[in-house]
Automatic annotation (TrEMBL):
Family membership: Belongs to the autoinducer-2 exporter (AI-2E) (TC 2.A.86) family.
Bilayer topology: Multi-pass membrane protein
Region Disordered, annotated ranges: 1-31
Principal place of residence: membrane
Biological processes, Gene Ontology terms: transmembrane transport
A GO CC term attached to the entry: plasma membrane
Localization of this protein: Cell membrane
Protein name stated in the entry: AI-2E family transporter
Segments of skewed composition (Acidic residues): 1-10
High-level lineage: Bacteria, Bacillati, Actinomycetota, Actinomycetes, Kitasatosporales
Organism expressing this protein natively: Streptomyces lucensis JCM 4490
Keywords tagged on the record: Cell membrane, Membrane, Transmembrane, Transmembrane helix, Transport
Membrane-spanning intervals of the chain: 47-65, 71-89, 101-130, 188-207, 243-260, 272-292, 304-320, 340-367
Length: 416
């Protein structure tokens, strides 16, 4: 029998009914039926491979950076050295000389000056060491006599010498010194290779400076090219100003220590003054102590108490230089605040050690001068607090002002 469809059968199935029909009931499968298996999303394997690749790339980059840290520091030193000699090379190149030849002449002059100073200092130091060794028995006799007279002892030089020769300390020291000869030779060769690397990179940076700037600007839009060239020029000016301030402080330090050594009649006073000035200014952190050790040694050969005088003068002058001389000269030549200069040296030392302390001030000065052009400045309001004065209280003058007026015999002003 045929049944006519009703209105409900002609209507489309509702959303609820569709979801009900599409979703299987939440019941265990019948006997012999296979349960549906949940498939892994297609994007998950790709995401896992991408995450593993990123982790591997990060580990590889971190490993490569740690392996190349020494080379990167050498390149950084070479770059600032090239910036320091850039004005001299550019001035010679502007007169028609080839830039490579001008760079070679500048390096040759620096090499001759350093080699001559090291040779003169080495010969002086060798002579003083020989003199000190020859006069060591007399110093030992005077020390033994002073000890016997002061502490009522009966020490003899022969007993002390035999005790030192047969002591375990001397034997172990000789063994360690013999074993450390290879380590010292390795460090010396490594230092020479490092100096050669810095010299080569600085020579290329200075000789091919225009080519390097053109290569850098060729990958930048015109607006960025102007900013890069301006930053380069600022870096040259600030590095030159920093070296000028260091050279001036080296001159002042050398003259001051020369006067002291000459007054004490210490031999080689001019050379020692130059040594103290250069080493204390251009070797950061330990330069002051290394510079003061040699004059103390030479002064000790003349009179042991002279070494104490030299030590005291070095300490006092170092404080004067740190808190008075260096902040003023750095603020004028590099144009940064003394507190900023001091903080930049501390930060540079924490990041890169002695190299960071040496290049921190010119780097911060360059960054400050470059960013100063992009900082918008406004007119400062005319407020007494801007000039360091306190705003006057509405209740009248303060207690100290009233005391000064009473002490001066001036009457209090009448209130209107």
């Amino acid at each position: 029998m045929h049944v006519a469809p009703t209105d409900e059968d002609n209507q489309p199935p509702s959303r609820h009914s569709a979801l009900t029909d599409a979703t299987p009931p939440d019941r265990p499968p019948a006997d012999g039926a296979v349960a549906p298996v949940a498939r892994m999303p297609r994007w998950l394997p790709r995401a896992m491979v991408l995450a593993l690749a990123l982790i591997a790339a990060f580990q590889l980059g971190s490993w490569a950076f740690h392996q190349l840290t020494g080379l990167l520091i050498n390149i950084l030193i070479a770059f600032f050295l090239a910036l320091a000699i850039e004005p001299a090379v550019s001035r010679m190149a502007a007169r028609g000389m080839r830039r490579g030849l001008a760079t070679f002449l500048v390096f040759l002059g620096l090499t001759i000056a350093v080699a001559g100073f090291v040779t003169l200092l080495g010969s002086m130091l060798a002579g003083q060491i020989i003199k000190m060794i020859e006069g060591f028995p007399d110093y030992l006799d005077s020390l033994i006599n002073w000890t016997n007279e002061t502490f009522h002892t009966e020490l003899r030089r022969v007993d002390i010498q035999e005790g030192l020769l047969h002591s375990d300390w001397l034997r172990k020291y000789a063994q360690n010194s013999a074993a450390g000869v290879l380590d010292v030779s390795t460090q010396v060769l490594g230092g020479l290779f490092q100096l050669l690397t810095i010299g080569l990179f600085s020579f290329y940076f200075a000789a091919d400076g225009p080519r390097l700037r053109r290569a850098l600007c060729s990958v930048l839009p015109p607006a960025r090219q102007t900013e890069v060239l301006r930053a380069w020029e600022i870096a040259v000016d600030k590095t030159g100003g920093y070296l000028y301030s260091r050279g001036l402080m080296a001159l002042i330090s050398g003259v001051a220590h020369y006067i002291l050594l000459q007054a004490l009649d210490v031999p080689y006073a001019p050379v020692l003054g130059v040594w103290v000035g250069l080493v204390s200014q251009f070797i950061p952190t330990i330069g002051t102590y290394l510079a003061g050790a040699l004059p103390m040694l030479i002064a000790f050969t003349v009179e042991p108490w002279y070494a104490v005088w030299v030590l005291g003068f070095v300490v006092v002058y170092q404080q004067f230089e740190n808190y008075v001389l260096q902040p003023k000269l750095t603020a004028r030549t590099v144009d940064i605040h003394p507190a900023v200069a001091f903080g930049s040296v501390i930060a540079g030392t924490a990041l890169l050690g002695a190299v960071g302390a040496l290049i921190a001030i010119p780097a911060v000065a360059t960054l400050q001068a470059f960013l100063g052009a992009y900082v918008k400045r406004y007119a400062v309001t005319d407020d007494p607090r801007v000039h360091g004065h306190r705003r006057r209280s509405p209740s009248g003058p303060g207690v100290f002002t009233r005391i000064r007026r009473l002490w001066a015999g001036r009457p209090e002003p009448e209130e209107s």
